[in-house]
Amino acid sequence: CLIQHNIVKNLSKSKYTTYCQCPKALWLKIHKPEEQVIDPSVQARFEAGSEVGELAKRLFGEFEDVTSFVLMPDSSERLDLKSMIAKTADCLSRSVENIAEAAFSYDGCYCAVDILHKIENGYAIYEVKSSTDLSHLEVYAQDVAYQKYVLTNCGVNVTGTYLVNINNEYVLDGDFDVKESFNISDISEAVADEYLKVPTRISQAKQMLEGGEPERDFGEYCHKPYRCTFWEYCSRDIIPHPSVFDLYRMSFKKALEHMNEGRLTLENMREEKLTDTQQLQLECTLGDKTYINKDGIKEFLTQLSYPLYFLDFETEQTVIPKYQGTHPYQQVTFQYSLHYIEQEGGELKHTEFLGDGVTDPRRALAEQLCHDIPMNVCTTAYNKAFECTRLKELAEAYPDLAPHLINIKEHIVDLLDPFRAGYYYKPAMNGSFSIKKVLPALFPDDPQLDYHNLAGGVQNGGEAMSIYPKMAEMSPKEREHTRQALLDYCSLDTFAMVKVWEKLLEVTK
Fold first, then answer.
1. Residue 456 pLDDT
2. Would you tell me how many other CB atoms lie within 10 Å of the CB of residue 135?
């Protein structure tokens, strides 16, 4: 099976599954890729998938990897599909037992199988995913059904179809065990349901790609099973801001229903039954006014006392456990920032901790935290559930420090509470009470509090989570630059909490 020369118009398994979710998204991916908006969490998922794929190649022992690259004029690398197909054919001729990234092409349809495992009378397809469950089984089955179609038409007898995904109950104890870290599921029944649809979908996708940009109504598929990376592009001239989609805790499905029934703007929602917070948002936005419940804020502030601490954690969440006693996707706390004021009118002080990106940071972090925060003092966090969970995990990992860590946890007050309770609302919050929305709403013209002004490539938690594990492979200069960027970002998080607290005090005077 020879690959066609026009790679752009060839379908791949990722393009095929994109078509299954939304044909327009595939057209845009081919013809207007610059319109994609890929957030850090999506990019992290891509990177996790690559890491998992590399490990899974060892699942059945020895293997041959046919991955090949070609150097482009701009010095970038691209997969050399022709070379991969030729190498795969050679492996098949030699009855290689395990072929990684086995490549095939049939009638403009290309795929690379994660693991092609030889068994009696044929080969089995093993598709590797970085997920921990089968919640997206339909998508996985579409992916594998497409591969089976291509391989079958290339003369390969596909005798089984399997999904390989992460075993989230695996705990690293000693050397990493690749077999124990994965689950293998037979998905042949789900693949059979999808297989019959493949030829028609391929034909429709090819025909669609030859035409102009297709029209497409909004639907749940814009966010399911994955949020479309072209959402901003498709909605830019149709959905105003703010709109029903911006209402506090309004589900995407419900917002679609309102839009389809002619209720898209907040003005359109005046007569609808809303939650108290949604109603407050609507009235403040349409009236361009700020709402402040002084009594509610005063009551909240009575929970705070000196010395007063402001705490924020950052975590890494690697798909493959790095440290003894951890499991896949465990939130491993590697950093904290701590601002504190020892007495009313006292000086604002700061301390911090950051791991080195190589060794397990948790024990040293926990010890320093117990040193930095005395027992029985008031600590604040913003959306404290995160910090409280991390403290509980640290206490479980280090029983000797548990009494102190749990004491810190039990004395945390959540700075999110007065906003979530509706005591303070400004239109600029746009239905969100995250600190990234609240801070610029309260301090719209303060460059010192603008996360976008942070240098070094760390401006949000997702970027911090992604860059920290990479420090181990950096040069000393790069590592120091990244270290400072992480310190600056986390410090701004707790300084922002201080400013929010000061604003709450100010508005109650």
1. 81
2. 10
